């Protein structure tokens, strides 16, 4: 569904992403992992059209979308969420979800009906008439997902949707993502909560210092020396191996 080839981006003398490539098959959940500052969000913003790549291509269902603005990419079926959720505080939860629905439904009644349907499916039926400002962090994460779904996008790019949640809330969001995938959607997600990655992603890519250093199942990646060193520092893989054999 999504093909990314050799994406690169520099800011002045800093290379944020260098020749990054990845594939997201239709119906899959794929993770994009890496330590802080690895370039994950920059990669996301290039894929979703918020940042123009210096080089490389992005193809969605075979169509070259490289350099298109975010609203055009969204209309073609791919949308991203944001790590810091900022709902329209003066609107109700339902009205916030309807903001996404207006992409394809100009009639207010149609947009609001779709928003109610999406919100109810995601377990927000009891808060749809409440102001969005009253939601907890977990509630705002659900709202972000609901608003993305209301655009009718089939590929969702999730930027740390589990950040700031307690374990029980993480489990709830994991269940919601599985439900959405089973309804016919595809996911590419940036995530630091390994509990979520291990239980959700079939495969994952690891980015470090702007370069893709590994690709495999989450269980394979946690045993990869290059991945261990990216997270824990130089020599960590050898030390862990010595400790396991001690």
Structural notes for this entry:
The chain contains 10 helices and 10 strands. The chain is α/β, with parallel strands linked by helices and 246 residues long. It has one domain (2-245): Rossmann fold (3-Layer(aba) Sandwich), CATH 3.40.50.300. The strands form 2 sheets. Strands 6-7-8-3-9-10 form a 6-stranded mixed β-sheet, with helices on both faces. A 4-stranded antiparallel β-sheet has the order 2-1-4-5, with helices on one face. The chain is globular and about 60 Å long.
Core attributes:
4-stranded antiparallel sheet, alpha/beta, Rossmann fold, 6-stranded mixed sheet, 246 residues
Regions with pLDDT < 50 over 5+ consecutive residues? none
The sequence of SSEs as H and E is EEEHEEHEHHHEHEHEEHHH
CATH class: Alpha Beta
Gap from first CA to last CA = 46 Å
Strand order of the largest sheet: 6-7-8-3-9-10
Q: How many H/I helices?
A: 10
Q: Major beta sheet, specifics?
A: 6 strands, mixed
Number of structurally distinct domains: 1
**Rg measurement, Å:** 19 Å
Q: Calculate the mean pLDDT score and round it.
A: 91
Question: Could you give a quick summary of the protein structure above?
Answer:
The chain is α/β, with parallel strands linked by helices. The protein is about 40% helix and about 25% strand. The longest helix has 16 residues.
Produce the secondary structure layout.
Layout lengths: L1 E10 L2 E11 L4 E5 L6 H8 L7 E6 L2 E2 L5 H6 L2 E3 L12 H9 L6 H14 L15 H14 L4 E5 L7 H16 L3 E5 L3 H7 L2 E6 L2 E6 L1 H4 L3 H8 L3 H10 L1
Parallel strand pairs: 3-8, 3-9, 6-7, 7-8
Antiparallel strand pairs: 1-2, 1-4, 4-5, 9-10
Helix pairs in contact: 3-4, 3-5, 4-5, 6-7
């Amino acid at each position: 569904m999504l093909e990314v080839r050799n994406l690169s981006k520099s800011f002045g003398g800093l290379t944020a992403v260098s020749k990054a490539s990845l594939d997201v098959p239709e119906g899959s959940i794929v993770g994009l992992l890496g330590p802080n500052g690895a370039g994950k969000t920059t990669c996301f913003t290039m894929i979703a059209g918020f940042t123009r790549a210096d080089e490389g291509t992005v193809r969605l269902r075979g169509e070259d979308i490289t350099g298109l603005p975010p609203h055009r990419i969204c209309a073609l079926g791919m949308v991203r969420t944001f790590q810091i959720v900022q709902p329209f505080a003066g609107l109700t939860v339902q009205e916030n979800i309807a903001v996404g629905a207006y992409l394809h439904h100009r009639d207010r009644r149609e947009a609001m009906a779709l928003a109610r349907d999406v919100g109810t499916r995601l377990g927000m039926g009891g808060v749809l008439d409440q102001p969005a400002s009253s939601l907890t962090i977990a509630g705002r994460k659900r709202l972000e997902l609901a608003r993305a779904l209301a655009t009718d996008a089939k590929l969702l790019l999730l930027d740390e949707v589990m950040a700031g949640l307690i374990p029980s809330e993480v489990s709830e969001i994991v269940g919601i993502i599985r439900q959405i995938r089973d309804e016919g959607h595809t996911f590419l997600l940036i995530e630091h909560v390994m509990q979520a990655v291990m239980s959700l992603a079939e495969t994952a890519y690891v980015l470090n210092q702007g370069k893709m250093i590994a690709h495999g199942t989450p269980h394979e990646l946690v045993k990869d020396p290059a991945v261990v060193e990216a997270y824990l520092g130089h020599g960590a893989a050898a030390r862990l191996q010595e400790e396991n054999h001690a």
